[in-house]
Write a structure and sequence with these properties.
This protein is mainly α. The protein is 64% helix and 0% strand.
């Protein structure tokens, strides 16, 4: 638990509001794109008629989800490493553009295989979640800011989960066929149609994706203009996008802070960093040799950066036991969390079959709900998630600390998953003894409890992950964690897609949810192997500390520290010379 209990006001003092606002805009677009698919995915696959039987739709839904996750698993670490070589901002902008492109391809898909390729492209081109974790850690450097800063990720996920399903489930943006193609079909009279009617019939799922893609482009523009580079080295590189953004802000009377690349004498020593080499040497930097044209700076150690001397982090000792333990917890919570998010809409949308239901162990089919109802359900629980993160999570973090709060959160999942399949027996059309409102109350209660668990558990495990890794390894560890999470998202939908189809054929629909409950219980037990880790203590202990103590020499400063020292020396000397003249 934290040594000192802080009030919310104390936590917010000095909080980096401006940059976190830009991060929030970028983050919001990701869950918006992800959750907008939930309400209509079942109907889209149904209309493609790729499955031989209606009960096999969940299996093909699993393939779509897994294709995205598998490609993200393959490329997440590469994006993380690339962000160490060229900076965080460029990677985030690529991710936004890639997601927008893949959404348009997905919305205009005319068959299942086109949709599969579109989701795969989305996985390949988007490594943003891992990079955003790193960026937030580099923006919120004070421990008291980190809980609130990292909670913005699930907060914005829940906000996106409100708007996304509302867009994807809207009757104005999506237009599934009225009758299932697995039944005898009545062909609708076409007649005279407006352009909108013609378009929505030919591309019934395109409009929702166009709307979401438009917001992604808006996020990309905001990021280009206002997001500052956070990498310790590349934040000194001139950013033309930020300069344009500062010019636009100046036009409306908003003053931008001084940028690192505008400091005096910067270009003389850092011009070569505009085109950095991918290979950056970890050896100590060598001071430049004075020449006739060199300024007289007797107190400064001038660092001349060239392509053979740039900093390159070593990843050899990144995966310590504590990092591995936290990544394992990340894997488990992501595995059952994404499986729930993927298959609850399938369970709700599947055709209701009263004659194949018998309390308590015979379940086949689903609730028979439409996409609008499902979208409203997910949007409502998204609102609940936002309230939880804004009100409950800060209080929980202050009272219990990160690790105890995480253990409480993961203990809720097994209960929710176990009870989900039994809600089908509360349907009034199955058992008239239950009032019509009983099923909605049960569904909203369970989804709210699940949202409580994920809305508090996800920022806590992110914090544990951030604090467990050494500073120089965080981008790599975050991307590796994202890769492992993507592996969970890949295996979960495939395994549970098959399991859901099998359990439906065996009239044991509850089997899928009980296996999920067991998996969540394993994650709950595993949380007791995790420990609270204080990154501030780790910063005081360096790998070569004993050697430095013996030789009475201070450790070599890293590149960022040396750049900062040289900037200070240059500016002090310049001011001194100016005052003399």
């Amino acid at each position: 638990m934290p040594a000192e209990k802080l009030t919310f006001k104390q936590q917010m003092e000095g909080f980096p509001v401006r940059q976190m606002l830009v991060i929030c805009i970028i983050r919001f677009s990701e869950p918006l794109a992800f959750s907008s698919l939930f309400p209509y995915l079942y109907f889209m696959i149904r209309d493609f008629k790729i499955a031989d039987k209606e009960e096999d739709i969940s299996k093909y839904s699993g393939y779509l989800a897994s294709s995205f996750a598998f490609c993200q698993f393959l490329f997440a670490v590469r994006w993380g490493k690339l962000s160490d070589k060229i900076g965080r901002k460029f990677i985030l902008l690529i991710g936004l553009f890639g997601t927008a492109t893949s959404l348009l391809l997905f919305g205009f898909s005319q068959n299942y295989w086109q949709a599969l390729v579109a989701r795969s492209i989305a996985g390949i081109l988007n490594g943003n979640v891992a990079v955003l974790r790193t960026v937030i850690g580099e923006i919120a450097t004070e421990r008291r800011h980190q809980a609130i800063a990292f909670s913005t990720l699930p907060l914005l996920f829940n906000f996106g989960s409100i708007i996304g399903p509302a867009i994807g489930g809207s009757k104005y943006f999506t237009h599934p066929k009225k009758d299932s193609p697995y039944k005898s079909q009545d062909f609708e009279s076409q007649g005279l149609q407006s352009f909108y009617e013609h378009f929505i019939r030919k591309y019934p799922y395109a409009l929702s994706n166009i709307v979401v893609a438009a917001f992604l482009i808006f996020s990309l523009v905001c990021g280009f203009l206002f997001l500052e580079e956070t990498h310790d080295v590349y934040k000194y590189r001139k950013d033309y996008g930020v300069e344009l953004g500062d010019w636009l802000l100046a036009k409306v009377g908003i003053t931008a802070p001084e940028r690192p690349w505008t400091r005096k004498h910067h270009s003389h020593y850092y011009h070569q960093i505009d085109n950095p080499s991918p290979t950056i040497s970890p050896e100590p930097l060598i001071a430049s040799t004075p020449t006739e044209n060199s300024p007289l700076l007797p107190t400064a150690n001038i660092v001349n950066i060239d392509e053979d001397q740039l900093y390159k982090p070593s990843y050899s000792n990144a995966f310590t036991p504590r990092v591995i333990t936290v990544i394992t917890g990340n894997f488990i919570i992501s595995l059952h969390n994404v499986t729930y998010n993927e298959f609850l809409p399938i369970f709700l949308a599947a055709r209701f079959q009263k004659d194949k239901l018998k309390f308590p162990f015979t379940i086949e089919g689903g609730f028979g709900l439409d996409s609008n109802y499902i979208g409203t359900l997910f949007s409502s629980t998204g609102i609940m998630g936002m309230l939880i993160i804004l009100v409950i999570f800060p209080w929980l973090d202050r009272k219990l600390g990160t690790i105890n709060g995480y253990r409480l959160s993961v203990s809720i999942f097994p209960i929710v998953y176990f009870l989900v399949p039994f809600t089908i027996f509360t349907l009034n059309k199955f058992n008239p003894n239950f009032p019509v409102w009983a099923t909605p109350v049960m569904l909203y209660t369970l989804t709210s409890l699940k949202t409580l668990a994920s809305a508090t558990g996800m920022p806590q495990v992110m914090l544990l992950n951030h604090r467990a890794a050494h500073k120089e390894h965080r981008a790599y560890v975050n991307s590796a964690t994202m890769s492992i999470i993507s592996l969970a998202r890949f295996t979960g939908p495939i395994v549970f897609g098959y399991l859901m189809s099998l359990s439906d054929k065996l009239s044991m629909g509850q089997l899928t949810w009980w296996v999920m409950s067991l998996m969540a219980a394993v994650g709950m037990v595993q949380s007791y192997w995790m420990e609270e880790y204080d990154e501030d203590e780790d910063e005081k202990v360096k790998p070569n500390e004993e050697l430095n103590d013996e030789s009475n020499e201070s450790p070599e400063p890293n590149l960022s520290q040396q750049l900062q020292q040289d900037f200070t020396a240059v500016e002090v000397e310049d001011e001194t010379q100016t005052s003399i003249h």
